[in-house]
């Protein structure tokens, strides 16, 4: 596909709305107004929408059956030619809708001029965009499901990989890498559900709303909705051509996906550093430095983190474009396409590369365990031990505070203190303390639902797998019942 000011093999373009004009459009205005550069990606949806509309017009006897058939055949042929790259779009035909209608009329004559009966570009662009984003959501859905699957598989092999958990980026309590992976699984599961909700609100058919006030023709909106796979038809013509909340909602869902990817990327960047050395990205997912020969940089993770910014930017842009528009359609709304297309493209670029990056990274288990052991991550467990021996928690907290203070001064970890040393802090401490505060016990005794214990993690992983298998067979493509 390409665009041209005027294709060599086509007659000079006459504006479809040119009737009431005395002068032709200024060249600069043609360029300025035109959206064909970016809305040509809607051609499949535009043609499908026009075919459904033409078929309904014929059935309802609003146009002759023969014209309806000629239109449908003509549109199918145009679709094939665009697929084959044989069509050059015209900038002065403004957008994908008028480009296709113009080509149709060039090819089939007067019948083509009847296609736009009972329709406006305002409901046409709304139906096209809803169909396009519906498809995009299905693609992103599959990618997010794949990511959830990758996280589950990784978690399965790390239920015993102990690592430090952090708050304030200070070592807090030991967890496992499986628990960390499954935390992100939960976040992406909510993103997945948000995508589903957004899909349902997008899957509503606006054709029949006309420019803003509906139409006097006896349109059968339900049959058009059924043919185009919509689950419902819009209930207010002004609303249907005015709002872009489905675009904003999707951009918000995509921003949240990017926020989660970015946060995880940030952790992987930290973990790849010499200071942490918890993981190492595969060579295939790293890059070097043009000056420093020793460098191996986590560029992929950084770029994903960076790209989150552009998706948030699109969300702000869309909200701002819409905030002051009086009902109904305003040309400002043509500005909805580039941001949402770019947001969709960005997410479709980031999710798969992120999946492959984490699936191939090397995990340094020993470093993770060492990290978990330093920094008194089992101090809470010493306090819990004292509580089990009868001390009130607040008192236990204070005793352990003194133990930690002593240990720092003597450069020992809690499991390196001798029984004599422990006894100076509390007579209730006995030999069994060493077992109670080992990293393994700290993790595996946290059996509360949602905790990091191996048996709890395995259950969470099993639930995740069952969820993914069940979701695999669920179709989002609910349609209007006849
Ligand atoms: N290209 C326009 C858009 O993307 C299509 C709708 C134009 N409608 C109109 N009345 N100018 O919004």
Short description:
By secondary structure, this protein is mainly alpha-helical. It has 19 helices and 8 strands.
Q: What do these coordinates show?
A:
- The chain is built from 19 helices and eight strands.
- Helices cover 59% and strands 6% of the residues.
- It has three domains: 34-117, Fumarase C, Chain B, domain 1 (Orthogonal Bundle), CATH 1.10.275; 122-158 and 177-362, Fumarase C, Chain A, domain 2, CATH 1.20.200; 376-450, Ribonucleotide Reductase Protein R1, domain 1 (Orthogonal Bundle).
- The structure holds arginine.
- The site of arginine (ARG) has 10 residues, from helix 6.
- Pathway: Amino-acid biosynthesis; L-arginine biosynthesis.
- Keywords: Cytoplasm, Lyase.
- It comes from Leptomonas pyrrhocoris (Firebug parasite).
- Residues 19-313 form the Fumarate lyase N-terminal domain.
């Amino acid at each position: 596909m390409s665009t041209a000011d005027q294709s060599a093999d086509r007659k000079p373009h006459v504006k479809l709305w040119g009737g009431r004009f005395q002068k032709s459009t200024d060249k600069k205005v043609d360029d300025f107004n035109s959206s064909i550069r970016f809305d040509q990606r809607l051609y499949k949806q535009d043609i499908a929408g026009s075919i459904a509309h033409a078929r309904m017009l014929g059935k309802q006897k609003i146009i002759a059956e023969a014209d309806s058939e000629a239109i449908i055949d003509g549109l199918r042929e145009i679709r094939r030619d665009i697929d084959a790259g044989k069509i050059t779009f015209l900038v002065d035909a403004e957008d994908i809708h008028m480009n296709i209608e113009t080509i149709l009329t060039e090819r089939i004559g007067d019948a083509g001029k009847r296609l736009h009966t009972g329709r406006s570009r305002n409901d046409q662009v709304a139906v096209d965009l809803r169909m396009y984003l519906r498809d995009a959501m299905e693609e992103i859905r599959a990618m997010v499901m794949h990511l959830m699957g990758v996280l589950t598989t990784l978690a399965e092999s790390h239920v015993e990989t102990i690592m430090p958990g952090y708050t304030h980026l200070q070592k807090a309590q030991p967890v496992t890498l499986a628990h960390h992976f499954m935390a992100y699984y939960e976040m992406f599961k909510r993103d997945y559900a948000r995508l589903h909700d957004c899909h349902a609100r997008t899957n509503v058919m606006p054709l029949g709303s006309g420019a803003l006030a509906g139409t006097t023709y006896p349109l059968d909106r339900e049959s058009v909705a059924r043919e185009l796979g919509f689950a419902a038809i819009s209930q207010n013509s002004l609303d249907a051509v005015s709002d872009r909340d489905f675009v904003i909602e999707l951009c918000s869902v995509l921003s949240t996906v990017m926020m989660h990817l970015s946060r995880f990327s940030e952790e992987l960047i930290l973990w790849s550093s010499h200071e942490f050395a918890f993981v190492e990205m595969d060579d295939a997912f790293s890059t070097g430095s043009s000056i420093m020969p020793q460098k191996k940089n986590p560029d992929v993770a950084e770029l994903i983190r960076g790209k989150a910014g552009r998706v948030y930017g699109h969300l702000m842009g869309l909200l701002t474009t819409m905030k002051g528009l009086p009902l109904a359609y305003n040309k400002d709304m043509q500005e909805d396409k580039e941001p949402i297309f770019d947001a969709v493209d960005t997410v479709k670029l980031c999710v798969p590369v992120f999946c492959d990056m984490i699936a191939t990274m090397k995990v340094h288990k020993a470093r993770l365990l060492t990290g978990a052991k330093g920094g008194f991550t089992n101090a809470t467990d010493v306090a819990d031990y004292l509580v089990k021996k009868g001390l009130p928690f607040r008192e236990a907290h204070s005793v352990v505070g003194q133990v930690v203070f002593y240990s720092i001064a003597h450069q020992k970890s809690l499991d390196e203190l001798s029984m004599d040393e422990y006894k100076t802090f509390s007579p209730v401490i006995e030999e069994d303390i060493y077992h109670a505060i080992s990293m393994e016990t700290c993790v595996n005794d946290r059996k509360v639902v949602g905790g990091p214990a191996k048996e709890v993690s395995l259950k969470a992983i099993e639930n995740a797998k069952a969820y993914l298998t069940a979701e695999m067979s669920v179709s989002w493509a609910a349609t209007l019942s006849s």
